[in-house]
Amino acid sequence: MQSTNSGYTLRCFTCKSVNDERETSTYCTKCGSVLTVDYNEVRKEIQYPIENIIPDPLKNHYTALRRLDRLSEMYGTELYAKLENENPTGCFKDRGSYIEVLKALELGVDAICLASTGNMAASVAAYARYFKIPCYVFVPEKTPQTKIAQATIYDAIIVKIKGDFRTCEELCREFAKTGNYYLAGDYVFRLEGQKSFCYELLEQGPIDYDYIFVPIGAGTNFAAIHKGFQEMIAAGHEIKMPTFVAVQPEQSSPVVEGIFKKEKIIADQVHTMADAVAVANPFDFYKVLTIYEENNSLALTASEDELLECMKEMSVEEGIFTEPACAIPLATFKNNLDTFKGKKCLLVLTGTGLKSTHIVAKYSLSSPVLSPKIERVQQYLESGFPEIQKKSWGQSRDMFMGNVNMDEEHARLYEEYVSSCNKKGKTLKQEEIKALKSLVYNEEKDLEYPVEVLDYKLTMRMHGLVSAAIKLKLPNGEEIVSLDQGVGPMDAIITAIKAETDAFIPLEVKKHEVEILSPDTDSLVIVSLTLEKEDYIFTTKAASPDTLEALIQAFVKGLAVANKALVA
Q1: Burial code of 453-485, b = ≥16 C-beta within 10 A, e = fewer?
Q2: Partner of 502 for a Cys bridge, out of 260, 359, 421, 506, CB 3.0 to 4.6 A?
Q3: Could you say which residues of the chain have pLDDT below 70?
Q4: Nearest-CA neighbor of 214 among 176, 243, 173?
Q5: Domain residue spans in the chain?
Q6: Across-strand partners of 530?
Q7: Neighbouring C-beta atoms of residue 178, cutoff 10 Å
Q8: Is the overall model pTM greater than 0.70, yes or no?
């Protein structure tokens, strides 16, 4: 793709004041609004605001344009998708990062900084590392390591900050002013890079789409693609301007809400599985609003359940595994079939699903670990579990087990659980029954328990410490009382048990999770323990109306599993 630069003016989108890129690449210095690039000439080739453009060193092919044959047939329309997941770091952000980093080099900065917890952090870090510019990424303190792992491998310097993402953004802007640093983000030069999407489309075939669906977070990509179309049309390319469809998840839709209220909405919080578009303060809202009002555009939302359904549908029908944000175009298309039926539609699929495997894990029914016996494999295949696994997508992974056929041993274990609950005056609800069946179905059979907990007593101490007295029955039949203390009841109980059992089965507790299945005071509680025996890491679960009893069961079960592995 050839590129040129005829010279340009950095202008405020709102007040039209001319700005100097050596002073700002973010907000207008006069009114604080967003900026735009006006080129001095109209040219058929793409223009970038870079003096000496070089080919993108990380990208060696266009992202694919695919006709979605099966979905087109299913819904009676012409559906196409641009697979932006094929960009170097698996996301459309690379188009903008390429130009932002080149601009940073052109301005002679010492480093690049940005606030991000995902796609942009990885993308900017990749290009910054290639061009040997230090990159600082500001993230909230609770950001999971998995979300910043990709940026980390590109040698980004991760700066974790107490507070939320807005706090990180504000602090990062302050940081940028303390040195010769380029502040990267959803700003004007990123937009100029992301418009290359349109010029690729131009070279991939006729541009005659009726609608183009674009997932929106900050609104920058939406504005970039529209600007690319505007520039191509102004240059004389024989294409038509499609109707733009701005799409967001219902649970994070400040742009769509703002469009209908005709004012910018800044959300207090945004919570959606489509975290790539979870933006509380949409930077380029007014550009989106202007496009909407001047071009007869549409603004639509979809629910979280609809996103899950369409993420799965795109995978199984077309073999395209994308992040949840990419499910919004298909979901909103399906919700408005009367409008789109028979039309030619382009879905912008912004990123790879490999960045969202935690979503798949959360909403998939995990497979049980089977003992290495052909009889157990046959029983598993005949139990109905694999069929239920396929149908369970989008539902809690522990809530879809009502129709699984258990073998005799697992049925016995299940009845023991139910009997124990009944003795405590607990009547299981339907969702608790399903969760309990799921837990039991995944349990190993034929475990030999090296110890038995006969009783326990807790005593509160000063400074938040709790003392535990645990009555144990050891493998030789001897009954002893183990005493120890910990920070809180759960820690005290585990510490007291380990005081005796570490002598013959040393077991490390790496993590514990408590799941309460209903808001009722007698809710069934499931305790999960991640345990380590030397280099062997595994998870055990147990259920009870009493959290501490579930904890004890899970840990003792862990001792049995570790003992079995040791013997094997």
Answers
A1: beebebeeeeeeebbbbbebeeeeeeeeebebe
A2: 506
A3: 394-405, 462-464, 566-568
A4: 243
A5: 65-85+196-360, 379-441, 452-567
A6: 511, 539
A7: 8
A8: yes
Instruction: Map tokens 């929106």 to a residue.
Output: 216
H/E segment holding residue 513:
strand 508-516
pLDDT for residue 189: 97
390-434, pLDDT tens digit by residue? 777 765 444 444 556 677 777 788 888 888 888 877 788 777 887
DSSP H or E run through 151 = helix 145-153
Cβ-contact 92, 84 below 8 angstroms: yes
Percent helix, percent strand, percent coil in the chain, to nearest 5? 40, 20, 35
Contact 253, 307 (CB under 8 A): no
Token pair for residue 379? 């029983």
The pLDDT tens digits of the residues spanning 23-71 come to: 999 999 999 999 999 999 999 999 999 999 999 999 989 999 999 999 9
| Residue 225 near residue 192 (C-beta atoms within 8 A) | no
Residue position matching structure tokens 């840990």: 555
Cα angle 334, 339, 344 (rounded to 5 degrees) comes to 80
Return the residue matching tokens 């999971």: 144
Any idea what the Cα angle at residue 173 is, between residues 169 and 175, rounded to 5°? 115
Token pair in block for residue 510: 């790496």
Domain 65-85+196-360 has CATH 3.40.50.1100: yes
C-beta neighbour count of 213 within 10 angstroms: 28
Q: Are 335 and 310 in contact (CB under 8 A)?
A: no
